[in-house]
Amino acid sequence: MRSVNEIVVVEGRYDKNAVRQAVDATVLETSGFGILNDKEKIAILRKLAEKRGLILLTDSDRAGFFIRGRLKGILGDINIKHAYIPDIAGCEKRKAKPSKEGKLGVEGMKKNTIIKALKHAGATFTDETQKKYNTDNLTKADLFALGLSGSEKSLQKRQDLQKHLELPKRLSANGLIDVLNILYTREEFLEIFNKYQNNIYKI
What we know:
It contains eight helices and six strands. It has about 200 residues and is an alpha/beta fold.
C-alpha cells in the first residue's frame, strides 16, 4: 500500500475508513459542517497545512462542495490541494436509501477511484520503506516523563508549550499527542522541547 505524505481531510468516519483502505495516510474528519464553527480544529488544520500540506476530499454533492469552499476561504490556498470524486449515482451499503442528491460519497468509492482522485490532486506518494512520518511516535508515558501530564502543574505547563508551538490552548493531553505525532517525529519534538525548556530557565 502506498503512503500519502499530505494529510487527507474528509467529512466523516466512513469516508476516513474508505481512504485508509485505499492508501496509507493520516486522515482527519470535519464531522460534517461541525468543523466550520470549531476554532480549535481550524487552528490545527492551519498548522498542519503549513507543516505537511492538506488534501481536501469531500463528497461531490452540494454539502461537500459547501464544506470545501468554506475551508478554502478560511484556510486560504497555502499547501492545500483539492481532490474530487466523480458523480456516481447509487447508495452506500450501510444506508437504507440514497442521499438527497442520489450520489455516492467518498465512502462509496472504489479504492482505485480514491487513489486516482488523490493523484489528480497532486498528492505525493512514498513507498513504505521511504515513510518519513510516524516512525517513532510520542506516547502518554513521554508526556508524563516530560511533566506535561499527571500532576496539578502539568496542565499549565502543557498550555504554555502549546502556546509556544502555536497550537490551541484547549487541546487535551491525548489531543496534543495526536497533533505532535503528525507534526514531528519523536526525535524532532524532543529537540524542540529541550530548547524550549532551556530558554525558559535561562538566567
